[in-house]
Specification:
It is globular and about 40 Å long. It is 6% helix and 50% strand. Strands 2, 4, 5, 6, 9, 10 and 11 form a seven-stranded mixed β-sheet that branches. A four-stranded antiparallel β-sheet has the order 1-3-8-7, with no helix packed on it. The chain has one helix and eleven strands; from the N terminus they run βββββββββαββ. It is mostly beta strands. It starts with a strand and ends with a strand.
């Protein structure tokens, strides 16, 4: 069974930067898509970004340019989310997600069809 473990969430000031990591374990992946969702207080979980093992990526339109997703697949399959110029509205719990499909998995993740979720990591942006 796949396990996703996020890390990197913390309190950061407005305008600051943060990098989140998510490591997948439990099986070997030759083809996959991994991504990030977030949930702000009182709001529904929303798609942030996703990347496939082939290197294709999708972003929520409003976050493109500030957020960058990347992945590494060696001894461990890991996805990163680099966030810059953070704003109050970026506050929330960030969840890692995985699809067992590659480029097709990007479409699935965007639609919220996920094969595995992480437990979430809290990001708080304050003044």
């Amino acid at each position: 069974q796949v396990q996703l473990v996020e890390s990197g969430g913390k309190l950061v000031q407005v305008g600051g930067s943060l990098r989140l990591s998510c490591a997948a374990s439990g099986r070997t992946f030759n083809s996959y898509a991994m991504g990030w969702f977030r949930q702000a207080p009182g709001k529904e979980r929303e798609f942030v970004a996703a990347i496939s093992s082939g290197g294709s990526s999708y972003y929520k339109d409003s976050l493109r340019g500030r957020f960058t997703i990347s992945t590494r697949n060696d001894a461990e399959t890991t996805v990163y989310l680099e966030m810059t110029n953070l704003k109050h509205e970026d506050t929330g719990v960030y969840y890692c997600a995985l699809s067992q499909f590659g480029d097709y998995g990007l479409d699935l993740l965007q639609r919220g069809t996920v094969d595995a979720w992480g437990q979430g990591t809290q990001v708080t942006v304050s003044s």
